Amino acid sequence: MTQSLEVVSLEPTPDQWRWSFGGGEPLLTVAPGTVVELTTEDCYAGKVRGVDDLPSVVCQFPYLNPVTGPIAVEGAEPGDTLAVHLVDIAPARDWAVSSTFPHFGALTTTHSTAMLHEPLEELVWLYEIDRERGTCLFRPRRGGPEVELPLDPMHGTIGVAPASGEVFASITPGAHGGNMDTPEMRAGTTAYFGVNVPGGQLSIGDGHCRQGEGEVCGTAVESAMRTVVVVDLVKGGGPAWPRLETDEFLMSTGSVRPLEDAYRVSQHDLVTWAAELTGWDRLDALQLVSQAGLAPAGNVVDTNYTMVAKLAKRYLPGATAADGVHERLRATAAAYLAQR
Amino acid sequence: MTQSLEVVSLEPTPDQWRWSFGGGEPLLTVAPGTVVELTTEDCYAGKVRGVDDLPSVVCQFPYLNPVTGPIAVEGAEPGDTLAVHLVDIAPARDWAVSSTFPHFGALTTTHSTAMLHEPLEELVWLYEIDRERGTCLFRPRRGGPEVELPLDPMHGTIGVAPASGEVFASITPGAHGGNMDTPEMRAGTTAYFGVNVPGGQLSIGDGHCRQGEGEVCGTAVESAMRTVVVVDLVKGGGPAWPRLETDEFLMSTGSVRPLEDAYRVSQHDLVTWAAELTGWDRLDALQLVSQAGLAPAGNVVDTNYTMVAKLAKRYLPGATAADGVHERLRATAAAYLAQR
Amino acid sequence: MTQSLEVVSLEPTPDQWRWSFGGGEPLLTVAPGTVVELTTEDCYAGKVRGVDDLPSVVCQFPYLNPVTGPIAVEGAEPGDTLAVHLVDIAPARDWAVSSTFPHFGALTTTHSTAMLHEPLEELVWLYEIDRERGTCLFRPRRGGPEVELPLDPMHGTIGVAPASGEVFASITPGAHGGNMDTPEMRAGTTAYFGVNVPGGQLSIGDGHCRQGEGEVCGTAVESAMRTVVVVDLVKGGGPAWPRLETDEFLMSTGSVRPLEDAYRVSQHDLVTWAAELTGWDRLDALQLVSQAGLAPAGNVVDTNYTMVAKLAKRYLPGATAADGVHERLRATAAAYLAQR
Amino acid sequence: MTQSLEVVSLEPTPDQWRWSFGGGEPLLTVAPGTVVELTTEDCYAGKVRGVDDLPSVVCQFPYLNPVTGPIAVEGAEPGDTLAVHLVDIAPARDWAVSSTFPHFGALTTTHSTAMLHEPLEELVWLYEIDRERGTCLFRPRRGGPEVELPLDPMHGTIGVAPASGEVFASITPGAHGGNMDTPEMRAGTTAYFGVNVPGGQLSIGDGHCRQGEGEVCGTAVESAMRTVVVVDLVKGGGPAWPRLETDEFLMSTGSVRPLEDAYRVSQHDLVTWAAELTGWDRLDALQLVSQAGLAPAGNVVDTNYTMVAKLAKRYLPGATAADGVHERLRATAAAYLAQR
Asked: What GO annotations for molecular function exist for this entry (chains A, B, C, D) (predicted)?
């Protein structure tokens, strides 16, 4: 396999960043199976560089959450499955930032959960990133102990062009993926998206050095990233909602409001998927998922909320998802890493 | 400590079962620190014993989800913290059951999410419990592979008498605890409840051999249990919502609707708690929880939905929750188990 | 009819007020068809008497929202329909009050929609009531025009004992009625409740000189009331959720969270009811309600939210609800008012 | 004024219909104050013409809900207020249709409220429209009485191009307007939209002969329309969410999920608006709206739910909204109708 490894690079300049999913021409077109080495800027478009850079001052709405892409995949047609394996996600700088943001987050009044309170105070936290030791350092702004947290890099935003000609801001998660903000989107994961337009049009951004489930303050440990993905195509079988696979788990996602509907969407998809993969009746799959499934929050702050439904593959005897593409992409990733 | 170990037994007869939290006389009164060996019946009141025992036929509403208790704790006054350490939860039989139930569950129309659909089919699953091997066996009703799942026993229902003289059915979770249905309520966990009435009035029931997060079909692997708890009291500091502690984690819960409000309640409590324990400003605690917190669903099927907010204690330097009672109860549990 | 008019009086002293639905002995027992002249205190238990009486200071939680009752109705058995016709609701004083209340209302963080904001400012408004002219005078606290509003007296809280031995605080609305806070509960309306316990146990309180739909700040123009009701009984036919009837409309209510579920419950009940009364298939009734139904909010501030589903009786040809008891009670009311 | 009355016509052919808000070139550009006589097709794109035309068969997703437009208004810049006065809305045919639709509506499982039920039966109702008598005739499909309902024509869908380059399907309501499905959008109403892009880009469609609040089955009495609007511009003052004005009422809208957030958005906007117009402090405006405001549902079926917050202008002494444009447009409408 290594002899045929196609590797391309995608390092967009700021004028090439995109701010939405859907519309626009691809920035890159690749054959299925291509390894793409790409760079992403952070959700602040790199403008918050210290604790005095308040996002509401230095950022210019709506120029938030730039994404790298779209990457068109040759041969991808509506109804197909676009598979993206995350090979490596490496912080590009030795610092990262997080912040509150006026009227954004789960524990504050927002544009949608409109109330008469003044916004919470806007604060920025600067994290030191130690790539050698694999840590990021939390420094409280107003005293108290510092905490060293393990790096667990992931991408908050990844997805394809929506159906029906819709164009969504890159901060919106949905059936097309987008800003799902789940920590499960780490290296080692393969994400599956249903293709809605020719080429699929994959974009990726919003790197996080790590993120708690729900992203309760509204932002993670935000960082520019140097990321490697393998992009592949499975003909047909495009899922209605993004799905994830790791060596150990299958996962379905749902990104709607209220949060119980995001739970319903993700669990419904996982139950249906489990039934298809095993031959179980859907009520039998419902029963198994009820006893063995996990349900972590993705985000509870974005324009849609995201829940993840997660099931260990060892509880799905004989099941092979998406024609086994995850295994193949793992091999591609290993070959790439061996020769890098 | 072992010389002073107080151990009492509580094995209610069916006419002693209770069906609600609040009201009624205690079934047992104990001194703080007492080990209680108790039995609980399953949520079907033991009436579903095979796949032909449809709950809607053999159970008599509202006689569902019996609880054992209340157990009054001497000296417990409103505002105090009732601490319950789960020492051991052992399935009492070599079988357990689960089922769908008409108009109950997350993927079906219900009493509250009222729709015009007919109910989903009512089905019962019988699990074989192998206590030696620590497994329960899932047998699909309509073909396909069987799956052996690890036992992970827990109690779906545990709580105290509500405030303000309210009486809630045992199937309702809330600020008093109750039917939270979180898999975190396993042996090794200490649960903290705010005391609302003299004695606190602890009740416990709804044992599960294991349960997925969210309990999507509405029921877990339901089983009668032989359970051992240590009941203790911390003067003052009663939390507004139930909290949990294990050797590794602190957890807050929220049980309301919609699910994002359950998320908000649990995260708000965890943020506030973390700030108190470390001396951080609340916004600093918000930031840390945003990056390091977990947010698994408890239940998304009961009269209130439950979310759990979970933080590793290693990220809270120097923090000691509830006067360190968890550590003391771990020691009591060890002493008990050593002499059992 | 006038010769048989049974009229009784119920003027509870403060020590006789109740604070919940369910539990406790009846304060009065009446035969079906009895006219009851009763008094109710306001939701502040009469303690807020001027703009300097902050509720959080002068009121003592949970002693809020006293109700008058319970009134047991002879012969009422579980499954029956308790019918309450509101004959007259008259403000008892020449002033009334409203207020914000810390962490209560739709546009503020609350106990359930927990956020990190400080509470909104607590303010009290004193209204002058002019019973002759039928007005209440709004005086802004911080300048700007005063507004004279028409009196439209109603009861925020009315209901029966809940099922299954539950006891709910009087501020909670639900299937038993309770604190639904809908402006439709005015004189001329007949309310129907499903009986859950012998006698039904009707209680009433929380008079409002008027109220907007949703009660957005959390309180209405709160007033002690002198109220006249006729209490009657229809054997069987107890509705799952409270229903209302006026000369012009049938109404169903739903009181749950989230608000779309309250909408679903109320519309589902109205569709089902319309089908029963006309002989339409349920999908035909759904179609008619879709085109001719109204859907005003009741409250969006209490522990459950209330939606009302409302259909003009002229769109239900030949329909007679609840054995025509509304017409009979209108006649009783007219006879009472004629002789008063 | 009549001498200067500019009247233009817009009758798009099917290939000119649009299916989204945002993107694309204007179909017409007009000066502020222009009267536009336009035609709209129904939400089924005219393909459902009898009870045997099942929408899921004859319609081709996503070609649903065509809109007429966009109409660019000369001089409209982001931040301005686009005012649209509805002069006349007349059914174009002597029949109209309604239907259930698989997995769409408030009382059925949907794409978002995902459940395991089969869809409800798909049924079509054909209404006879009598324009002379002003009625539409409901014929139940399965027996029972027919009902004559009054015509109350309105447009379910009206709005402008969204901000930030987003493109939303015409079935989605939001801050840009769109498919709000409120019966308040009838002749005599002026709608205000915040302009997001040069020209504003107004589109209109989805005529309803009448509609219940909430549109519970998912569709109204759907009809092609011959509609007359006056399109005008107020520099600055663009509202965050669509607002409405009639001779009697001011209204704010909110279109998000869950429904309580739509309520919050609409009430928050109305409170803020009332404060601005009267000089009241926002808490005083909150108090007045709490007692005098109305809160009918718009839709509880679309991709966002819509609530309307409604306040009689007589309770806002001295207030003039949007520079009095509603009064001026009423005069323009009268002049147009006089000369038609």
From this structure: hydrolase activity, acting on carbon-nitrogen (but not peptide) bonds, in linear amides
CATH number of the domain that residue B26 is part of? 2.60.120.580
State the Cα angle at D21 between D17 and D22, rounded to 5°.
110
Q: Is C118 on the interface with B (CB under 8 A)?
A: no
Measure CB to CB from residue D286 to each of A116, A167, A282 and give the nearest one.
A116
User: Residue C202 above 80 pLDDT?
Assistant: yes
Residue C147, domain member (yes or no): yes
Instruction: Write down the pLDDT at residue D61.
Output: 87
Whether the CB of D217 is below 8 Å from some CB of chain C: the reply is yes
Whether C115 sits inside 8 A of A118 (CB atoms) is no
Question: Does D231 reside within a domain?
Answer: yes
Q: What is the pLDDT of residue C110?
A: 98
Domain limits for position A220: 2-239+323-339
Selection from C237, C241, C204, C228 nearest residue C325 by Cα: C237
| D292 occurs within a structural domain | no
User: pLDDT confidence of C212, banded at 50, 70, 90?
Assistant: very high
pLDDT band per the 50, 70, 90 thresholds, residue C1 = very low
In this complex, how many residue pairs, one in chain C and one in chain D, have their CB atoms less than 8 Å apart?
220
List, for residues B286-335, the tens digit of each pLDDT value: 999 999 999 999 999 999 999 999 999 999 999 999 999 999 999 999 99
For residue D9 the two structure tokens come to: 């016509």
Structure tokens at C204: 């009433």
- My answer on whether omega of the bond before D62 falls inside 30° of 0, hence cis, is yes
Q: Are C331 and C1 in contact (CB under 8 A)?
A: yes
Q: Do C109 and A117 touch (CB under 8 A)?
A: yes
Q: Is the pLDDT of residue A129 over 90?
A: yes
For A288, name the nearest residue in chain B, comparing CA atoms only. Answer: B138
Residue type, C12: P
Whole-angstrom Cα distance, residue C275 to residue D117?
Answer: 22
Mean pLDDT of C114-120: 98
CB contact under 8 A, D167 and A169: no
When CB atoms are compared, the residue of C117, C258, C260 closest to A117 is C117
Give me the pLDDT at residue C77, please. Answer: 98
Residue C255 in domain:
no
Consecutive H or E run containing C258: none
Q: Comparing C-alpha atoms, which of B318, C110, B333, B307 is closest to residue A295?
A: B307
The two three-digit tokens of residue B27, written as one number: 């079934």
Three-class DSSP category at D153? coil
Which pairing describes strands B34-40 and B225-234: parallel, antiparallel, or unpaired? antiparallel
pLDDT of residue A3: 54
Exposed/middle/buried for residue D21 (C-beta within 10 Å: 0-12, 13-18, 19+)? buried
Chain A touching partners, 3 or more CB pairs below 8 A: B, C, D
Cβ neighbours of D115 in A, within 8 Å: 264, 268
Number of domains forming the structure of chain D: 1
Question: In B, which residues are within 8 Å of C115 by CB distance?
Answer: 264, 268
Strand partners, A13: none
Please give the Cα distance from A282 to A292 (Å, whole number): 15
Enter the ipTM.
Answer: 0.98
Residue C213 touches partner D, C-beta closer than 8 Å: yes
Confidence class of residue A254 from pLDDT cuts 50, 70 and 90? very high
Q: What are phi and psi of B160, to 5 degrees?
A: -125, 175
Q: Rounded CA gap, A118 and C104, in Å?
A: 16
The nearest CA of chain B is from the CA of A268 a distance in Å of 7
Contacts of B126 (CB under 8 A, 6+ apart): B50, B51, B95, B96, B97, B139
* Residues 6+ positions from A181 with CB-CB distance below 8 Å: A156, A157, A173, A206, A208, A211, A215, A220, A298, A299, A301, A302, A306
A residues 22-81 near B, CB within 8 Å?
A: none
What residues in D contact B120, CB-CB < 8 Å? 116-117
What is residue B61's predicted lDDT score, i.e. its pLDDT?
A: 87
